[in-house]
Amino acid sequence: MTPDQIKKILDERADRLALVRQPGSGHAEKREYLSFICGGDSFLIQSEYVDEVVRYKEVTALPGVDKKLAGIFNFRGSILGVYDGEKLLNGKNGDSASNHYIIVCSFGKVQFAISCEEITGIQNRSVADLLENSSNELLPPIITGVFDDSARCINFEKLVKDESLKIL
Asked: Cα(33)–Cα(15) distance, rounded to whole angstroms?
């Protein structure tokens, strides 16, 4: 074989290898999500941010605060703010009586809870299947995107850092 033929074969092999997805690449990456329903809409939150899911307990309302904060409750000796999931994620005024679960979340030292109607399970989803949220007009900026089955994926870091959790 001539050096030119060898180079051509090696270049072809390099091109074919470049098409193979390597493990851990963003395209084949799967993540584990907690799936839940708020206001009839399906949401996903990365399970690494979920500490625990508990049945809805009596939440003590706080007078004069933003309605998206349903109130506070005692969780293992810590007082946590409980956000009404429908108001926080959908911006709608829902019926808090339909909330049956509280999702206790944490990000670093920040710990809070979100109420929801139903927990639908743990799901492993491919990040490549996520249709990114490129328009903040239709979905709030805390939504990373939507999967084919209309499940909305929450960008948890943005949720914590955004104005969403701020009580006015």
From this structure: 35
Sequence-distant (6+) residues with CB within 8 A of 164 are 88, 140, 142
Structure confidence at residue 99 as a pLDDT band (50, 70, 90)? confident
Q: Is residue 19 part of a domain?
A: no
Mean pLDDT across 33-39:
94
pTM for the full predicted model: 0.77
N-terminal to C-terminal alpha carbon distance within the chain: 75
Q: How far apart are CA 126 and CA 111, in angstroms?
A: 27
Give the range of the structural domain holding residue 55, as residue numbers without chain letter.
29-165
Number of domains making up the chain:
1
pLDDT band at 21 (very low <50, low <70, confident <90, very high): very low
Angle at 32 between CA 29 and CA 35, to 5 degrees: 130
